[in-house]
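Record type: ASSEMBLY
Status: queued
Input:
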Amino acid sequence: MGKIQLTKVRKSFGEVDVIPGIDLTIEDGEFVVFVGPSGCGKSTLLRLIAGLEDTTSGVIDIDGKDATNLPPAKRGLAMVFQSYALYPHMTVRKNIAFPLKMAGMDQAEQDKRVARAASVLNLSSYLDRRPGQLSGGQRQRVAIGRAIVREPAAFLFDEPLSNLDAALRVGMRQEISELHQTLKTTMVYVTHDQVEAMTMADKIVVLNAGRIEQVGSPLTLYHEPRNKFVAGFIGSPRMNFIDGAEAAKHGAHTIGIRPEHITVGDGPWEGVVGLSEHLGSDSFIKVEVPGLGTLNVRGPGELGVHHGDRVKLAPAGKIHRFDAEGLAI
Amino acid sequence: MARAVSPRRMILTTLAAWTVALIIFFPVLWMILTSFKTEASAVASPPELLGASWTLENYVEVWARSDYPRFFWNSVVIAVGSTLLGLVIAIPSAWAMAFVPGKRTKDLLMWMLSTKMMPAVAVMVPIYLLFLQFGLLDTRIGLVLVLMLMNLPILIWMLYTYFKEIPAEILEAARMDGASLWNEILYVLTPMAIPGIASTMLLNIILAWNEAFWTIVLTTTKAAPLSAFIASFSAPQGLFYAKLSAASAMAILPILILGWFSQKQLVRGLTFGAVK
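Status: finished
Output:
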């Protein structure tokens, strides 16, 4: 069981309120991703759940028990750090077995669990190496191995993939998702990368300045963002926002249109292509439209448009409407 | 590309380095050479770098006239004892200062260091009276205590610097893994800081070994270490340079050997953290 419930959790460092007060429920077995720009408090929130930071006020329940004042080790959680935080003087085997040793588990059971974790994570042939002799991806696997042997109530991941190169990141992302399918244990994952959030999460928590902007499934956030911040943060390339007369036509202060909801060909808007990126499967172009600003457009791979071309654009698809406060109408 | 160094420049640099090294080493060299001279040759004017005749007589006489093994053993017990006791106090202190610093940690560190700037003689009378009161005069435990206290600021400062280099995330990981504070220090921090702890230990042993002020003030015979042994050869009726040199050479030899074998460790320890 790994249900985590935060009630009015607040954290301040001196005068600064990093987290002014958060209510959140993470259900047992869920994969929840905290996402937001840097400095939004997502890592602090994770560290509060882990017990590595003390809450200023509020209650953290884990499995229905008040864990607010419990030390990290007593919360039954395991954490994977951004820097892996492996013990450099221990072999992979000893690194993975460390939490079991601390729990006073007998040697035979330790060996069994280490062997099992190593085989799940393809580490069996590296057990006698030290972390310094491993690649980034292997180190990350050791860190995950150290987390899974404890059979924790929940896993906490603090930007675990940000030190890996792009190709490895995609691979590890899938491995972590598969691990979640296999273990069915609650996972709380912090990232600033919205692609990671969209691909891995059951539920995304979008944070901004220590506040929750929206909680929901990836597609809910994508299709029904509650405000401009979420609309702009989720989705790549970013949603286009248009103010003024064009917005007023739709009865809104601002309208938002996703890049894939604009077609190139014929339409009411005309502009000059600035940047054009052709990825093969897709084309991303930026079009400077007088009166509207620069619009991101996503077209098919064979869109034959290049820098300097004059094009006509038309909205085709959902138009998101926002009021003057930035809330969705 | 590596920086090109002209051969001329390299020769000059080498010569300069050797000159400085020889100037620093000269007193020790002079002492060792004198220890093999006769007393007459040792005080000859103008001074002779190499005596006319070589003799081991000084060593034989110094050995015969004093109980060298006892002084040596006292030195070992005092230097190693004060260092180990100091580490037991300094490791947790430096851990606390490095990983859970308070608002006044920096001030505390500066204050501790400032005590090293106070001349030892300023506290001689109170310490002497305290030792008298508690029956610690001329005891090894007394010297272990006083030398430990004298060098504790240096121990804590050095360890603090090494501990600061250890990423806090690794200790947090240990805490998440269920390590108690004691286990965190024992299984994670200490093994990672071994190079730093080793060089701190070596430096402290050397400092304690060479300490002369307190060892002479607080001991007479029973607990006197090698520094007091040297002093015992500067008699009021006159200096016997050759014998004094022989005694000095015998006193520094053990620590010189230790320093020689551990120089790599010492240099690594002292420059630890200078480059990432």
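Annotation: DSSP finds nine helices and 17 strands in chain A.
Annotation: The domain at 4-230 of chain A is CATH 3.40.50.300 (Rossmann fold).
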